[in-house]
Write a structure and sequence with these properties.
InterPro entries: Stress_up-reg_Nod19
Oligomer: single chain
Largest sheet: 13 strands, mixed
Strand content: 35-45%
Number of strands: 24
Shape: globular
Order of helices and strands: HEEEEEEEEEEHHEEEHEEEEEEEEEEEH
Bound molecules: 2-acetamido-2-deoxy-beta-D-glucopyranose
Keywords: Membrane, Signal, Transmembrane, Transmembrane helix
Amino acid sequence: MIILLVFLILALDISYTQAFPETGNKIKSRTFLSTEFVLGPGSVASKTYYDIDFPRGHIALKSFNAEVVDQAGNSVPLYETYFHHWLVGKYHEHRPSGRNFSRNNGLCQGQILGQYFGLGSETRKTATHIPDPFGIETGNPAEIPEGYQEKWFLAVHAIDTRGVEDRLGCTECWCDLYNVTIDEDGNPIRPEYKGDTVQSQTGFSGGRRSFYLRYMVKWVDWDSSIIPVKVFVLDVTDTGKRLHGSTGISPENGCQIEYEVESCTATDPASQACIDIKRNSLTMPTGGYVIYAVAHQHAGGIGSTLYGQDGRVICTSIPIYGKGNEAGNEDGYIVGMSTCYPEPGSVKIIAGENLTLESNYNSTNKHIGVMGLFYIYIAEQTPNVTLTHAPVQIHENMKLTAYGWSVVAFIGLAVTTAIAVYSWLKKRREGGYKPVPK
Ligand SMILES: *[C@@H]1O[C@H](CO)[C@@H](O)[C@H](O)[C@H]1NC(C)=O
Ligand SMILES: *[C@@H]1O[C@H](CO)[C@@H](O)[C@H](O)[C@H]1NC(C)=O
Ligand SMILES: *[C@@H]1O[C@H](CO)[C@@H](O)[C@H](O)[C@H]1NC(C)=O
Ligand SMILES: *[C@@H]1O[C@H](CO)[C@@H](O)[C@H](O)[C@H]1NC(C)=O
Ligand SMILES: *[C@@H]1O[C@H](CO)[C@@H](O)[C@H](O)[C@H]1NC(C)=O
């Protein structure tokens, strides 16, 4: 208990680190701990916490870094507690408790993939910082509806795989594992979901443990020299269909989030390559300069590329697989994704441009519930060029960089699932938000 208290105090220490060159504005950094979640071997935590600790006021977010720790503050390796995803989103609260989700810039609708930050197993080795003078603007009083307060929620989805025979397999079929076949209102969720039932529990006798999401946020106070970025999450399953008023995952809503990869021997016995290539075309509603981009894939993923309409590469993002035993390097797990930080102004997307998203998986084995997401942050101007006066031709200048744990993560990737947005969805299914949250 004392250890925990000391840890809490240390964790909440606030520090002011680098200078923000444009303005002298200091980058602020603060580390928070989520509410505790408790897991026993084979069990799953799928929690949404509202009104989490988060920097307040009119600010620009610069990075967001998170990982699962135990009660002593130690990093927990993925083979003990598989971190399916965490994600952080924004809502406007109307007292006493009405909540209006305040999503990112697209492309899906409703609450689907509407988070600002979110990662899965790759969280420890994926860079998410936003270079100066850019940032994600938040807390702008002009954008918060009258009578509402801006707040943040955190969704955490973790699976305790201690004692599980097929640990990586178990992480793919979490839906049946914890019996999520109906939602809190008794409606079936995603009946088409084919996650295999996991029968791999082997009488492992480990005890229940407490975990926390430890997250570090960096930000600067807002000023006019900061250039805001728009946050887009592209989904390779997005068919482009949009059903007016629908926010749940259904065939009428183009974003299915997850898909399946058939084994190559099942689809083509003579297949040599055993690579599943999934491509789709997505129309960008607004244009701008790409400041940051990264893909999200699950185990089995071998990389993802976002192409412009003319075929130029906007970003290629490749999974980093662990090779060892320690947290951040777990053998066989995706422990990071490479990111793209193009020279601001060099990679431009035009409003209405049709991008192609390609997500590749190793199909030697069948995979269930995989994802092919691409996060892109777009600025309408750079310090030197504004979009309206910028030359129309498109340059290709893509930098691919993998950053280590020491690099602070920010926003980013997300790993979202039906479960992640589950508590939002059920409310929308009723045609509105519940006045009183559970
Ligand atoms: C899932 O449901 C089965 C059958 O009702 C039950 O035996 C099992 O304990 C449940 N598992 C979890 C994780 O709740
Ligand atoms: C913007 O201007 C700065 C300073 O003049 C220069 O160093 C930088 O290369 C320019 N960037 C671009 C994208 O032109
Ligand atoms: C993008 O694709 C749509 C649908 O095929 C088409 O109507 C539109 O003209 C395309 N946009 C551009 C910029 O070519
Ligand atoms: C796919 O996975 C199989 C089995 O793990 C492996 O032998 C093969 O090299 C992988 N192929 C690629 C392209 O990664
Ligand atoms: C919040 O959501 C409720 C219910 O959907 C709606 O009536 C209200 O207009 C929304 N408020 C704002 C500011 O959008």
